[in-house]
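Reopening: Dienelactone hydrolase domain-containing protein still failing for me.
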Amino acid sequence: MKVIVVSDIWGRTEALDALCLRTFEDYTILDPYSGSEMNFEIEGDAYKYFINECGLERYYSYASSYIKEQRYSYNLLGFSVGATVAWMLACSDQAEFIKKTACFYGSRVRYLLNERPTRSVDFFLANKESSFNVLEFSRELSNIPMVTLHKTRFLHGFMNHSSENFNLEAYGHYSDWLKSWANGA
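Support: Ran it again with your exact input. Result attached.
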C-alpha cells in the first residue's frame, strides 16, 4: 500500500528518507518546502522559517492540491505540523482515497477538534507538551469517532533525528509499528 508522508517543519531530510526506505515499500514525501533541502541546524530556526515562509494554511493547501490528484488508495502519515495537515486531509472531502491515517504528535490538532475524520486515525501523543495540557487534549481526542489514541512516554519529536527530543528506542518501536500499519496490520 502506498504511503503519503507529510513531514514536519524540518522538511525532507536524510533521516526522513531513511525512515521511509526502512519502513515502506512505496511512498511519497510531501514537505512544506516542495522538496528543497533546508538543512536547518537548530529547531528554532526551522520553526521560524516555517512560520515566516510557509505556515499551516499554505502547507495544507500544497498537500491538498497533491492529494486531489491521487486516484488510488493510500495510507497517510504525518509528523508534528505534518500530522496536523494529515488530520485536516482526513477530515476533508478529499479523504475518499485515504485508507487510514497515522498522526505523530500533531499538537495543533487541538485547534481542530470540531473537525471529524472520515477514516480511521491512529493518533500518537507526546508525553507532555510545553504549550498545552496533554491529558485534557487526550480526553477530547478519545471522544472522537474513528480515532485510536496512543499515549507515549516520549517527547514531541521523538521520531525525528534532528529534534532534541529524538529517542532511539521510540524510533525503533514505532518504525516497526509503521511497517505493520503500512502493510495492513
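The chain has a mean pLDDT of 94. If you still see a failure, please send the error message rather than a screenshot.
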